[in-house]
Design a protein that fits this description.
transmembrane helix; seven-stranded antiparallel β-sheet; Peptidase_S1C; 9 helices; Thrombin, subunit H; six-stranded antiparallel β-barrel; Pdz3 Domain; protease; 24% strand; Chloro_Bact_Ser_Proteases; alpha+beta; elongated; transmembrane
């Protein structure tokens, strides 16, 4: 294309309105006579097309129209090639079967109902293609308003259609129709026989039991409530204490005796009475055997004895023995429940119960039963204590040992050994005294007691009780304090004296060498002296 010289618009309000390419011929640029000169439109500037782009996006050779006409088809249904366009080869038979029209479609289009053969199909209402007419179909009516559908699930579900009854099987069909496997039939038969046999046995047992109830002379056994043994009961306490109690069998020559003891230390130390082991420690040197609650027997060795308090300590070669719990006798009160455990008359593991009848009861033991003039400040109990209980523990309601059973009162005589029987007057050494003496025996084998150096007897004038001095040991503690024969002692320290035995136990409450004030009555006049106790 040739270029046209550049013409610029010099004015005019509508000078830009006629700038349409090729809209005005060049001759129109010459204004009419008497008019102002006017420039014509500038021709378009078109650059040469790129050969590569033209080959890619340009029209094919020989095609001038905007779109190429469709290829014409031959009479036999095959396409004829249009000028300038190569056609694809006809499809194969497999592709034609898969994607071609079905043979029954005929010449009609896809919108024709099957079987129309290209002819216009109408229903009785005069509408084409849609049974019932298309006038009521909202998808075919352009004037149908748009309505929002309800959310999914809001609509009521249609009720389920009732299931039809299946064919019923008869017994003949089950057995002979081959509808059930023979193995299943055999299993059902065996199950039915088992259920029948079980029912028969239950019926037989029921009938037999009913006949036994109706038989004349039948006696129904009565039932009792289960026994309850709460913690703290006698049964519970006995079960806890019995493993720590031993039965002592003493043999001297062809003679034998028995007593009891209680384990007080994990090293195998056993606390008992002196009069229990005295026959084995005297002339003849007998043997002592300890029998535990489980039946085991071991020999016992005497560690030490104290005849003045009727206590002794033995040792048994037992590893990890059960040790009794030690309580406090000073906390006992009259009426407290107590349990006595021992081997009366050789019956090991005997348990009796009672209460504390009195505390701080001075009791002089039978000199034939002990090796010395033993006087104890006893705990009195009505628990049954018999010969053989000696040396066994007296236990409180917590299972702690509060005394060592020692003596009984029978037929008006204090009995500490193998004579008499229980009449409800038993005596035990307080565990506070027994613990101190037992520890000293384990440590040194002997115990030193305080002594006043007098002999006395119990007296009373009807208003005052006391201990009358019968004999003062020469150069003894009483003689040094100025006590004379005939004086009546009424108080030792803080303890009132009502008998000679009580004076003895009151003096033994102190250690040797202690200075103790002693109140006495001499020829009807009160007198107080201070005595420095000696040792015995």
């Amino acid at each position: 294309m040739s270029e046209t010289p550049d013409h610029r618009d010099t004015g005019g309000s509508d000078g830009g309105a006629d700038r349409t390419p090729d809209a005005v011929p060049p001759s129109a640029a010459v204004p009419p006579s008497g008019a102002a000169p006017r420039l014509g439109p500038r021709p378009l500037e078109r650059s040469e097309a790129d050969p590569a782009e033209q080959a890619l996006f340009g029209r094919p050779d020989g095609v001038d129209a905007p779109f190429d006409p469709p290829p014409s088809h031959g009479t036999n249904g095959t396409s004829r090639q249009a000028p300038g366009f190569p056609l694809q080869p006809p499809p194969t038979a497999a592709v034609a079967r898969a994607f071609g029209r079905p043979e029954r479609a005929g010449a009609g289009g896809l919108q024709r109902p099957p079987g129309s053969d290209g002819a216009e199909h109408t229903d009785p209402a005069g509408e084409a293609f849609w049974p019932g007419g298309s006038a009521e179909d909202p998808w075919r009516d352009p004037d149908t308003p748009v309505v929002a559908a309800p959310p999914h699930g809001d609509a009521d579900e249609p009720p389920p259609s009732p299931r039809p009854d299946g064919p019923r099987l008869s017994v003949r069909e089950v057995l002979f129709g081959g509808r059930v496997q023979p193995r299943a039939l055999a299993l059902l038969g065996a199950l039915a026989l088992g259920v029948g046999a079980l029912g028969g046995l239950v019926g037989h047992w029921t009938a037999a039991g009913a006949s036994a109830l109706t038989t004349p002379g039948a006696v129904l056994a009565s039932t009792e409530d289960a026994k309850e043994r709460p913690p703290g009961s006698v049964a519970d306490l006995a079960a806890r204490v019995l493993p720590s109690v031993v039965s002592l069998e003493v043999t001297v020559g062809n003679q034998a005796g028995n007593g009891s003891g209680v384990v007080i230390d994990a090293d195998g130390y056993v606390l008992t009475n002196d009069h229990v082991v005295a026959p084995a420690t005297g002339p003849g040197q007998g043997s002592i055997e300890a029998v535990f609650s489980d039946g085991s027997r071991v020999p016992a060795e005497v560690v030490g004895t104290d005849p003045l308090t009727d206590l002794a300590v033995l040792r048994v070669p037992v590893a990890n023995p059960t040790v009794a719990s030690i309580g406090r006798s000073a906390e006992l009160a009259v009426g407290d429940s107590v349990i006595a455990i021992g081997s009366p008359f050789g019956l090991a593991g005997t348990v009796t119960t009672g209460i504390v009848s009195a505390v701080d009861r001075p009791v002089r033991l039978d000199p034939e039963g002990s090796a010395g003039d033993a006087v104890i400040d006893a705990v009195q109990t009505d628990a049954a204590i018999n010969p053989g209980n000696s040396g066994g523990p007296l236990v409180d309601s917590t299972g702690a040992v509060v005394g060592i059973n020692t003596a009984i009162r029978s037929a008006g005589t204090a009995q500490s050994g193998d004579q008499g029987g229980s009449i409800g007057l038993g005596f035990a050494i307080p565990i506070d005294d027994a613990r101190t003496i037992g520890q000293e025996l384990i440590r040194s084998g002997r115990v030193a007691h305080a002594d006043l150096g007098v002999n006395a007897r119990s007296v009373t004038d009807g208003a005052t009780d006391g201990a009358q001095i019968q004999n003062v040991v020469e150069r003894g503690p009483a003689a040094a304090a100025g006590i004379a024969d005939g004086d009546v002692v009424v108080r030792v320290g803080e303890r009132a004296i009502a008998s000679a035995d009580e004076m003895v136990v009151a003096v033994r409450e102190y250690d040797p060498g202690a200075q103790v004030p002693i109140e006495l009555v001499r020829q009807g006049r009160p007198l107080t002296v201070t005595a420095t106790l000696g040792e015995r």
